[in-house]
Amino acid sequence: NLLTGNISVAHCHGECVVFADIASIQLEFNAACDRLQDYKYCALSDHVLNAMDPKHAQYAMKQVPIIAGHYPILIRLNGTFGSDIYRWGAMGDSAYEYLLKQWIYEEFSRRKRANTMGYFYSNARSEQYRRRYETAVDAMLQHLYKYNEASKLYYIAEIEGTYLKSKFDELACFIGGN
Fold first, then answer.
1. What are phi and psi of 127, to 5 degrees?
2. Is the dihedral of CA 62, 63, 68, 74 positive or negative?
3. pLDDT for res 140
4. I want to staple 51 with a disulfide (CB 3.0 to 4.6 A). Which of 60, 145, 151, 163 is the partner?
């Protein structure tokens, strides 16, 4: 609620944020960093992404994801998981999509302008985005990419708890563009 500042996600009673939202807003912080020429927005974004990167010293999650590079669709504000649903569809889709977009933005937009315009390019940040995206895609292909014999079609399943659900969420449609 923008007026009161109260956070509310139905299943978590205001104690969670949606994984897709956490990741996708980071590109906006990076764009603000560039447009305003103010590194504090990059630093805020870096802090969030580092907190969710198991290979980073600032990793702050209190639980280990069951699939490398993936997180459940709800994350509690205290760093624990608010859900046991892992998916590339609704509430997870933008996270994976934006890891790719952040790498492209960092590597192919900022890098070109780094010397001439003072943009905040970071090779380490670019490599972090690339590594996290590739880790997520490789794990998705290994654990979630499935073939349906009856339809002769491939799909991206999702995990709920320990159960692999043979369901292709409509919002996972962006995967074909990756």
1. -65, -35
2. negative
3. 94
4. 60
pTM (whole model) above 0.90: no
Alpha carbon distance 94, 138 (integer Å): 17
Sole residue written with tokens 């590739």: 134
List, in sequence order, every residue forming a beta bridge with 164; answer none if it has no partner.
159
Each residue of 144-178: pLDDT tens digit?
Answer: 999 999 999 899 999 999 999 988 777 666 676 55
The 3-class secondary structure across 85-133, one letter per residue, is: EECCCCCCHHHHHHHHHHHHHHHHHHHHHHHHHCCCCCHHHHHHHHHHH
Query: What Rg do the C-alpha atoms of the chain give, in angstroms?
Result: 17
**95 Cβ contact partners less than 8 Å away, ≥ 6 residues apart:** 19, 20, 22, 23, 24, 71
